[in-house]
Amino acid sequence: MTDIAWICSAVIFVLWAILFGWALYATSKAGKVAALETATSDSEEIAERASAMTAAQANAAPDDAKLDQRLANGTFGFIVLFCTGLLTAACSEHPVMLCPSLVTYSSAEENTLRQELASSVLPQTHRFIRDYGGLRDQVRACQGKTIGKNS
């Protein structure tokens, strides 16, 4: 072969090597982009799950409107009394209903609590207070007292 043939062969070889190197670089870059997209979608999925769990926890307790509605139409107390009656009806000839006693709070204490809750932005505290209010209403229902907003 002549010198020109060797030079042309070398140039073609170098061009093929450059092309092959560029193809490797492009595929590795595409792999990194795909990995980044996968990581992004995974983190979005994790964030959605966390958001759904937070929403489920926040919605676990009834809000003030739902609790007031249940208490106003007596559904809450009826369910508690009905279930208690079913559970104790077959136990003895004369069922005895044991109810815990309630701590009585003064109007001043209730007003102070309302003011403190109105001034705070603590959703977990509000949820616990609503749960506690529901438990107090269940005890009142058990004792046969009228269930109301300020009783």
Key attributes of the depicted protein:
151 residues; mainly alpha; 2 domains
Please, could you describe this protein's structure?
By secondary structure, this protein is an all-alpha fold. The protein folds into 2 domains: 1-60; 64-143, no CATH class. It has helices at 3-58, 64-72, 75-89, 107-119, 123-143. The model has no long low-confidence stretch (mean pLDDT 76).
Could you write a compact summary of the structure shown?
This protein is mainly alpha-helical. The protein is 75% helix and 0% strand. It contains five helices and no strands.
SSE topology:
Layout: H1 3-58, H2 64-72, H3 75-89, H4 107-119, H5 123-143
Helix pairs in contact: 3-5
Radius of gyration: 35 Å
**Any idea how many domains?**
2
Would you tell me the overall average pLDDT? 76
- Strands, total number: 0
Q: What general form does the structure show?
A: rod-shaped
Which structural class do you get from the secondary structure elements? mainly alpha
Percent of residues in helices comes to: over 70%
Order of helices and strands: HHHHH
Classify the beta-strand content into a percent band.
under 5%
- CA distance, first residue to last residue: 109 Å
* Uncertain regions spanning at least 5 consecutive residues: none
User: What is the number of helical segments per DSSP (H or I, 4+ residues)?
Assistant: 5
- Main sheet record: none
